[in-house]
Design a protein that fits this description.
Number of domains: 2
Number of helices: 10
Structural class: alpha/beta
CATH architecture of the largest domain: 3-Layer(aba) Sandwich
Number of strands: 8
Strand order of the largest sheet: 2-1-3-4
Helix content: 40-55%
Mean pLDDT: 91
Order of helices and strands: EHEHEHEHHEHEHEHHEH
Low-confidence stretches: none
Length: 276
């Protein structure tokens, strides 16, 4: 003889083949509409086989008033749970089944049927946001302490796409610091203590840099005669930057006439080679 659960309040079983957070959140959102705190939610995660389903149904049968809310991706397990619930007159709400059916029809693509994908996507999102924040905090040599924490450090003269590249790579979950090289300011010592394969030197032809800096001056409403865009100054900066790169022994990429995506792909290849 089964002993009924003595709870005086209804119970909702939030059942999932992942952690069950979605099933619980939807249940709580529904409860709010009834201004009722007299409902217990029992989250049951990682339900991935029929034996576990049978245990849940048995527990539900022992309660005086209950319902099941499920977010099960695995079709066989989901269908078995629905079948047993209906067979035992236990109210059940299948949140994922109808959605999966509709999506399959409109996108004409088969689903992955992998529990826990949302959680993995969330983790990926937060890693990307962390990398973006890192790129902002350690842009243009703002804080030398970031150099040792970076996955890659980009160095080069001004206007060699260091910041756009750092942001692009951040969206690939890479922590990137960048440092502008100018003759008047010695690079921080931390730069020379890094493994050479974590530093990438960005080079550019004098002609291309001259054109870029001229356009930059026009955009800022400044005179084209500024020292910043003079040929002699550009050659001085490029020569200085090359000396620093040679001293470090880091790989170099010529960014002249290359798109950010192309340069970023080259940088990622360098990182992969360094990891081997």
């Amino acid at each position: 003889m089964m002993v009924k659960d003595k709870s005086s309040h209804p119970i909702v079983f939030a059942v999932s083949d992942s952690i069950g957070e979605t099933a619980e959140l939807v249940t709580r959102a529904t409860m709010v509409q009834f201004n009722s705190e007299n409902v217990e939610i029992r989250r049951i995660p990682y339900v991935t086989n029929n034996e576990y389903v049978e245990e849940i149904i048995q527990e539900a049968k022992n309660t005086s008033s209950c319902a099941i809310v499920c977010t099960i991706i695995l079709p066989d397990v989901r269908e078995y749970l629905i079948h047993l619930a209906e067979e035992n007159n236990i109210p059940i709400v299948d949140l994922m089944g109808p959605m999966m059916k509709v999506f399959s029809e409109i996108v004409e693509i088969k689903p992955h049927l992998e529990p826990g994908l949302v959680r993995r996507i969330d983790e990926d999102y937060f890693k990307r946001m962390e990398a973006i924040e890192f790129a902002v905090n350690y842009d243009d040599g703002k804080d030398p302490r970031g150099l040792s924490r970076a996955d890659v450090v980009l160095i080069g003269v001004s206007r060699t796409s260091k910041t756009p590249l750092a942001m692009f790579l951040a969206h690939k979950r890479l922590k990137v610091a960048n440092l502008r090289l100018v003759p008047e300011v010695a690079p921080p010592e931390e730069l020379f203590n890094l493994p050479p394969n974590t530093v990438v030197g960005l080079t550019i032809s004098p002609e291309k840099l001259f054109d870029i800096r001229q356009e930059r001056l026009k955009a800022m409403g400044l005179s084209a005669d500024a020292n910043y865009a003079k040929h002699s100054r550009i050659l001085e900066e490029i020569e200085y930057a090359n000396k620093i790169m040679e001293k470090i022994g880091c790989p170099k990429i010529d960014v002249s006439n290359k798109a950010v995506e192309e340069i970023a792909t080259h940088i990622m290849e360098i990182i992969k080679k360094g990891e081997k």
